[in-house]
Write a structure and sequence with these properties.
It comes from Microbulbifer harenosus. Keywords: ATP-binding, Nucleotide-binding. GO terms for molecular function: ATP binding. This is ATP-binding cassette domain-containing protein. This protein has 201 residues and is of the alpha/beta class. The chain has a single domain, classed as P-loop containing nucleotide triphosphate hydrolases (Rossmann fold). It contains 6 helices and 10 strands; from the N terminus they run E-E-E-H-E-E-H-E-H-H-E-H-E-H-E-E. A 6-stranded mixed sheet has the order 6-7-8-3-9-10, sandwiched between helices. Strands 2-1-4-5 form a 4-stranded antiparallel sheet. The structure holds adenosine-5'-triphosphate. Adenosine-5'-triphosphate binds next to helix 1.
Length: 201
Amino acid sequence: MATLTLKSLAIGGLKSIDLQVAAGEIVCLSGASGSGKSRLLRAIADLDRHSGNVHLGDTSQSDVPGHSWRGMVMLVPAESAWWYDTVGEHFSEHPEETLQQLGLDADAFNWPVARLSSGEKQRLALARALARKPAALLLDEPTANLDKDSTERVESWLRDRIRQQQLPTIWVAHHEDQIARVADRHFHIVDNGIEEQEMTA
Ligand SMILES: Nc1ncnc2c1ncn2[C@@H]1O[C@H](COP(=O)(O)OP(=O)(O)OP(=O)(O)O)[C@@H](O)[C@H]1O
């Protein structure tokens, strides 16, 4: 259970971002297309060169090899990468209950990755990320490819896991209604920084 802290983080047009996300807290991040949301998540995940630092509790990003950091501070990008031919090869055990909770066919574990729809891929990428037991989550538009029912199902599944596992979470979202449903706090990218927004009830 640790806080995720961004200290003077700068990448691309974003200058000196300071932010603390508490254990189990969901911070939504919005901003115009191209304003730098995905790049900011990639910097936090130590995938792109940046200045400033990120801490998870007492652990500094700069003291940990990138792959180990990303095992703890897990990015689920808008488009996930798949390395093996079948879905099941990406999991260490069958996530039967998770598949059901996410509205996926129980047999999806045995499917070739090539047959997945974009919405199935997105839900399986979330299942895969949580199965790896991260300590913090970075979600880049995790419901972008989903219909309304699946969106609400995934929101509720994520919220439960984030609370239970006390994961500090940054969730990139475009829609105000989604932000109102899931966020504890909301920041919007303005000029070269982030500005906290009032939460609507
Ligand atoms: N590796 C890179 N080097 C330089 N510029 C980049 C790099 N990756 C992305 N950009 C640029 O940085 C800007 C921000 O990109 P980013 O993908 O973070 O936007 P975004 O806010 O996530 O947008 P969207 O809502 O459309 O997904 C864009 O102008 C993009 O072209």
